[in-house]
Give the backbone structure.
Amino acid sequence: AMLLYFVFGEFAAEPQLDLSAHGSHGLPPDVEMRRIPKAARAHWDGHPLRGALGEILREGNPGAFEAARKAPECLMLRGELADPDSLAYLRDTLGVVEALLDTGGVAVVDPQILEIFTADEWRARYAGAEIAAARGHVLILCHDDADDAAWVKTRGMRKFARPDISIRRVPPSEVQRAGAVASQLVELGMRGMRFGEGSVVEVDGLPDGLKVTRGGSLEDPEFNNTHLELNWPNA
């Protein structure tokens, strides 16, 4: 599992975090927090407010983007963990993010789902929410595919040490159903299920289901993750 969050704001040299108020035991051992002053950001290759990601964030939430841009500091929370047997690692990390928003944080970037939040938007989405609510952590997208079909895909499953979902050649009339299939696969993956090469996903109305092919790599820019490839059958 890989976690990556950026919290922008102004923080004490040693922030005093009320972790118990957010149900957190602190950052997991393999997740580190690194402080990046504004002066150092000019030479920071991993700056989330720049490049293609920065443009996506600016367009998606201009207010949060501006708050982050003006913030004097950024705290990066990043780590990779061996496939965990529960979601405690995610709950603890999100609790640290929430505690940082109580002590000077003004905006949060989650690059794995291409989103930026103001402090209030983050609280509205995550504070007190069930950690296994998939739509809070995984993005489901729909793009044009070849021959007037659609491509339904996800981003964010790397948080759960699972591949993302890619469903290609979806007819326009079936996009909603393909999205529901992707959402179901996300839920199953979050809860620990694995799909091997050649597995078949049963879908009502598709007698042969959808066959799974494993593909991609962690360097794939479409997902920043491996993925499960499924093709919608021809009508």
Remarks:
- Residues 33 and 87 are 19 Å apart (CA to CA).
- Residues 175-190 form the longest helix (16 residues).
